[in-house]
Design goal:
This is Cytidylate kinase. This protein has 9 helices and 5 strands. It is of the alpha/beta class and 205 residues long. Bound molecules: cytidine-5'-monophosphate (C5P).
């Protein structure tokens, strides 16, 4: 069983995907982490995320970065959003995402293009969204809790810039698959969002 969970930054898709994976006892892959690892590798090398060649060269080293705590920070997220627009970077990361999806009996993957590109044949698809102000509030709270000193306005501006880049890029833009169930978490608690998400999956499988 393959379950695809897509949506913009801080929509709740990661939390929801983890809960669905635990519910069905399936492995979970946060595909954003792969792009963050490529973005952080590019930054560490002093290279330019906008250079497709530099970003592709970083793909081979990304696996080694996946446990790096800096991947959670906004610098890695912003670099990820730039490197992920390069078609050759996406191509380099497709095989390992598909392999994960089809390994022993299935998986839950969350990202931007799981239901549209990585696993269009998924058994269940969710598209998770929330307003940009609410997503920025959640992300800001999370960053402050982790000790970051960053203003709400900066987080909101980052989220809006990321949404724009992710949804307007030519290759695999952020888009709801036609057969994905829509879940708006704007006014839901985490518990309610998880409950709704599992109901929506149950209706599709
Ligand atoms: O989900 P997360 O915020 O960690 O993703 C970081 C960035 O990686 C996103 O802004 C997006 O540009 C990119 N990404 C992507 N495709 C995915 C997952 C993430 O392009 N499947």
């Amino acid at each position: 069983m393959i379950i695809a969970v897509d949506g913009p930054a801080a929509s709740g898709k990661g939390t929801i995907a983890r809960a669905i994976a635990a519910h069905y006892k399936l492995p979970h892959l946060d595909t954003g982490l792969l792009y963050r690892a490529v973005g952080q590798t590019v930054l560490d090398r002093g290279s330019d995320p906008a250079s497709e060649a530099d970003a592709v060269a970083a793909c081979d080293f990304a696996d080694a970065m996946l446990a790096d705590p800096r991947l959670k920070e906004s610098a890695a997220g912003n670099a990820a959003s730039v490197v992920s627009a390069h078609p050759k970077v996406r191509e380099a990361l497709i095989a390992r995402q598909r392999a994960f999806a089809t390994q022993n009996g299935g998986a839950v993957l969350d990202g931007r293009d799981i239901g549209t590109v990585i696993a269009p044949e998924a058994d269940a698809k969710l598209f998770v969204r929330a307003t940009s102000a609410i997503r920025a509030r959640r992300r800001h709270d999370e960053l402050v809790r982790a000790g970051a000193k960053i203003s709400f306005d900066k987080v909101l501006a980052d989220i809006k810039a990321r949404d724009l880049r992710d949804s307007t890029r030519a290759t695999a833009p952020l888009r709801q698959a036609p057969d994905a169930a829509l879940l708006d978490t704007s006014f839901m608690s985490i518990e309610a969002a998880i409950r709704h998400a599992i109901q929506l999956v149950e209706r599709q499988i």
